[in-house]
Design goal:
The complex is a heterodimer of chains A (313) and B (529).
Chain A (H helix, E strand, L loop, with lengths): L1 H28 L4 H6 L5 H10 L6 H13 L13 H36 L4 H15 L2 H15 L15 H35 L2 H8 L4 H38 L5 H11 L2 H29 L6
Helix pairs in contact in A: 1-12, 5-6, 5-8, 5-10, 5-12, 6-8, 7-8, 7-10, 8-10, 10-11, 10-12, 11-12
Chain B lengths: L1 H15 L5 H9 L2 E5 L15 H10 L1 E2 L1 E3 L5 E3 L2 E7 L4 E6 L13 H14 L1 H7 L2 E8 L2 E6 L6 H5 L8 E2 L2 H4 L16 E3 L9 E6 L23 E5 L4 H9 L5 E2 L7 H5 L4 E17 L9 H10 L2 H6 L8 E2 L25 H10 L6 E7 L3 H16 L3 E7 L1 H7 L13 E7 L27 H12 L3 H18 L2 E14 L2 E2 L13 E2 L1
Parallel strand pairs in B: 1-12, 1-13, 16-17, 16-18
Antiparallel strand pairs in B: 2-9, 3-4, 5-6, 6-8, 7-8, 10-11, 11-12, 13-19, 14-18, 14-19, 15-19, 20-21
Helix pairs in contact in B: 4-5, 10-12, 15-16
Classes of the chains: A mainly alpha (313), B alpha+beta (529).
């Protein structure tokens, strides 16, 4: 298994190299000139040319890519064109809000999605199952920005139970940290939790029709034990897969949620960098996100061995 | 049993209070903090290196100016004790007020001011104009310096104290010596608030603390002149890009002030008794149809004139805002609060007739050349006006294509002088504040030097000559006469077509005090009741 893990991590390197090349090429092909943006409207063409030179933007693309890649290998993602700050520092400042949001969203989604899915599968076609179908369809259908506005209007503006926007670091106290994150995390969880509930239900229905479940029932094992000890563990592989895929999807959805709730996370950083054509920041963020995606997938693959003894690498 | 459980829980909760953040919250509440929703993303901290509005607004808190203009654009001493023109106007001598300090405790010296003027003049248009008159700068002592002029330049105080970007902010000499094409990394100024760099998260959060050693002027505030009083202990900016969230945060009391509320949300805020919505910037925002003078069809002055005949400013303005009190037609090339405000020469803009425009277009020999409009879609007002322009020109019988894009793409494409089928362009809608178009010295779009002019590159030697004459004029009367003559000539050349102005509103909570009219987002003097 150790050899498999190492092999998977090594195969991630060329994947990320391709990602880096594609991102760099896309940026190179995208119209927009950061020197123009930061020089402002009153700059003369000569001033803009000087800024472009000082930023190294007039170099050949392949030289820029090679230099950037060489620095990346050494752990240096470069410096923001606009703020002059190291990209690693900027990403570091934004990690806590995004990770906090994702963590809470995953906890809520899994915490609600799995039990609801199990409960629906336990009694198919019951009112409980139908109610779950209605709620999950609603969860899928509501775009994050609509759900976010609706939740903010109800719980922040009208009832004033929770803040409308912002992020409080964990170091300022877990209660404040949690208060700011509840609404955005619930917003993110609506879609994600719905998917988990649906997949859990479908997977559980498959497992509950297996012979060994019938045998357990015949032996008089308590229904709760059958559901959670015998069935859920065997139904967990597709659920874990969807959780893994979902984490990656959540990173994308977080862009919208961070915008609606003014959370200073990676999503906001990415959007701002794209609008300003801050190339080093865009490249750094995309590379970091692709690395996270690869790691999540490796973790998911490895978790299969814990859930299903038949799977061995 | 229940009582015991309750007591245990209560004591646990009390013990956990510091962990829950109670103490840090209490500390922050003790200080009077002004919380501002700022419209832009503060990225760069060098107001000379970039003209980005958030950087300018940051700089007005951190740095100070030698002189500053009042609401009539008349310069007054700010850091200066006063100034004199000597030797028939060929020497400008300026003395600094006593006790001025930078945020690192060092005194403000003449050497700091000289280096700052030189760095500013290397980048700013009005500064570059001033440098054509300046022979040299030298310190007389630590609190007095002189600027030697090749010939009299009465507009020098107006240049040093101007309110539009970029302003001549005073930095310590070591910062001002940094190449103006590179960013300064320090944030040391001598303004009313110290920047808290350790709390800064670019694009997310910025904070300032009151500078205790700041000595405000005694005069009442008047635009950016007069006393700049740090009226709160701390200022915080939040960058909330979503307008609905920004409004909700203001209404909920999580924020105190919103510097650029979206106009469609104004009625909701006006209905809230705790919110004040007011036009803080008396000059407003001026919209313009920028034309490419190097490519057909707008390289033909008669086509430009035909288009000007069709323009009804009200139609453009109403596409952005329905409230008639927020829009104002402006038949001039200077802002309505400029000392040069006038409608001289604007007859063509008052034609407002599609039929006459069609006839003029036919007479101009328009042969169906494609008009490419660069439409910046991330700004709702610019996007709406670009669509109105497209519709208007279609009705005139022109071959029009509106290309939707973001600002960064437009900023690059507008540099192209190629034909429209090779990545070029014909027009775009742009916006400037009134203080950006207050006089020919700062008015970038009134430059008509061909390749050296702003995007669109109008070429009219007569306009350039009039601008030079204005810069050399000895009296305000003569300056006004020449500035208006420049406008009359501009209405013949049409470097761009004015589309009128919209009132710039701000929204803030009723407990704020001291919010004063200002052409820039200045946050000094604003207190919190």
């Amino acid at each position: 298994m150790l050899a498999y893990t190492v092999r998977r991590l090594l195969t991630a390197v060329p994947v990320m190299g391709v990602v880096a090349l594609v991102v760099f090429s896309l940026l190179y092909l995208t119209p927009g000139d950061p020197a123009q943006v930061l020089a402002g409207d009153t700059a003369t063409p000569e001033q803009i040319a000087k800024i472009r030179t000082s930023l190294g933007l007039d170099e050949e693309a392949h030289l820029r890519f090679a230099r950037w890649l060489w620095h990346v290998v050494q752990g240096d993602l470069g410096v923001s064109i606009f703020s002059g700050e190291p990209v690693t520092h900027m990403i570091g400042q934004r990690l806590q809000p995004t990770f906090s949001l994702l963590l809470l969203a995953v906890v809520i989604s899994v915490g609600l999605g799995v039990p609801f899915g199990v409960a629906a599968a336990a009694r198919p076609d019951s009112w409980r199952d139908r109610a779950l179908t209605v709620f999950t369809t609603l969860g899928f259908s509501l775009p994050a920005f609509i759900a976010g506005y609706a939740l903010a209007f109800l719980f922040a503006t009208t009832l004033k139970w929770l803040p409308v926007q912002g992020f409080t670091p964990l170091s300022d106290g877990p209660a404040l940290w949690l208060r700011n994150l509840i609404l955005p995390a619930v917003t993110l969880s609506l879609v994600y939790g719905a998917i988990i509930a649906r997949v859990t239900r479908a997977s559980m229905l498959d497992v509950l029709s297996e012979d060994y479940i019938r045998t357990a029932r015949a032996k008089g094992v308590a229904p709760r034990i059958i559901l959670f000890r015998h069935a859920l563990k065997n139904a967990a592989v597709p659920v874990i897969t969807i959780i893994g895929i979902g984490v990656a999807t959540l990173i994308g959805s977080a862009v919208i949620t961070e915008n609606v709730f003014a959370i200073p996370g990676i999503g906001r950083l990415t959007v701002d960098a794209i609008l300003h054509r801050d190339y080093p920041v865009i490249q750094g963020v995309v590379l970091m996100l692709s690395a996270a995606y690869v790691l999540v997938n490796v973790a998911v693959d490895l978790s299969y061995t814990l859930l299903d003894p038949r799977i061995r690498y | 049993m229940k009582r015991r459980t309750f007591l245990q829980a209560a004591s646990l909760a009390t013990g956990a209070l510091p962990f829950l953040g109670g103490s840090s919250v209490a500390q922050k509440k003790a200080a009077k903090t002004l919380k501002i929703i700022h419209n832009g993303n503060l990225a760069s901290l060098d107001p000379i290196w970039t003209t980005a509005p958030p950087t300018k607004d940051y700089a007005f808190l951190v740095f100070d100016q030698l002189l500053a203009v009042d609401s009539n654009y008349v310069p007054h001493p700010q850091m200066a004790e006063g100034w004199t023109f000597e030797e028939d106007g060929r020497t400008f001598v300026l003395g600094l007020r006593e006790g001025l300090k930078f945020h690192d405790g060092e005194p403000v010296r003449s050497a700091d001011c000289i280096a700052s003027i030189q760095r500013w003049a290397a980048r700013d248009g009005f500064g570059q104009l001033a440098m054509r008159f300046i022979d040299g700068l030298e310190a007389i002592d630590d609190r007095k310096f002189r600027i030697k002029l090749k010939k009299p330049f009465p507009l020098l105080p107006a240049a040093l104290g101007k309110s539009n970007s970029s302003q001549c902010f005073i930095m310590p000499e070591r910062m001002a010596k940094v190449d103006p094409m590179k960013q300064v990394t320090e944030t040391i100024g001598s303004g009313p608030y110290r920047f808290l760099k350790e709390e800064f998260v670019s694009g997310a959060k910025a904070a300032w603390a009151k500078f205790d050693d700041y000595i405000p002027r005694k005069e009442p505030v008047d635009s950016i002149s007069g006393g700049r009083i740090p009226a709160v202990d701390r200022i915080e900016w939040a960058f909330i890009s979503d307008p609905s969230t920004a409004m909700a945060a203001l209404i909920a009391g999580e924020q105190d002030y919103w510097d650029a509320p979206t106009l469609d949300l104004v009625p909701v805020m006006k209905a809230d008794p705790n919110i004040v919505v007011s036009p803080r910037n008396p000059t407003g925002s001026y919209y313009m149809l920028q034309l490419n003078h190097t490519q057909p069809p707008f390289n033909n002055p008669k086509v430009r004139q035909a288009l000007a005949m069709a323009i009804d400013q009200t139609q453009f303005l109403k596409s952005a805002v329905s409230d008639p009190t927020l829009l104002k037609a402006c038949y001039g090339y200077y802002g309505s609060d400029s000392p040069y405000s006038s409608e001289d020469g604007a007859e063509i803009l008052k034609t407002r007739s599609l039929d006459k425009a069609k006839a003029a277009l036919k007479e101009a020999g328009y042969a169906g050349e494609k008009v490419v409009i660069l439409g910046v879609m991330e700004n709702p007002t610019l996007a709406a006006m670009a669509q109105v322009a497209e519709d208007l020109m279609r009705r005139m019988g022109m071959n029009v294509q509106l290309v939707a894009m973001d600002f960064a793409t437009m900023a690059q494409r507008r540099t192209s002088k190629e034909p429209t089928d090779k990545g070029g362009w014909s027009m775009f809608v742009t916006v400037w504040t009134g203080s950006d178009i207050v006089n020919p010295g700062v008015h970038q779009m009134l430059r008509a030097g061909g390749p050296t002019a702003w995007f669109g590159w109008p070429n009219d030697p007569e306009m350039e000559a009039l601008r030079d004459q204005w810069a050399n004029a000895a009296t305000p009367e003569e300056q006004r006469k020449l500035a208006i003559a420049l406008q009359v000539q501009a209405f013949k050349t049409l470097p761009y077509i004015p589309l009128g102005s919209l009132v710039s509103l701000v929204a803030y909570r009723k407990n704020l005090t001291g919010v004063f009219p200002s052409p820039v987002a200045a946050y000094w003097n604003i207190g919190k009741g």
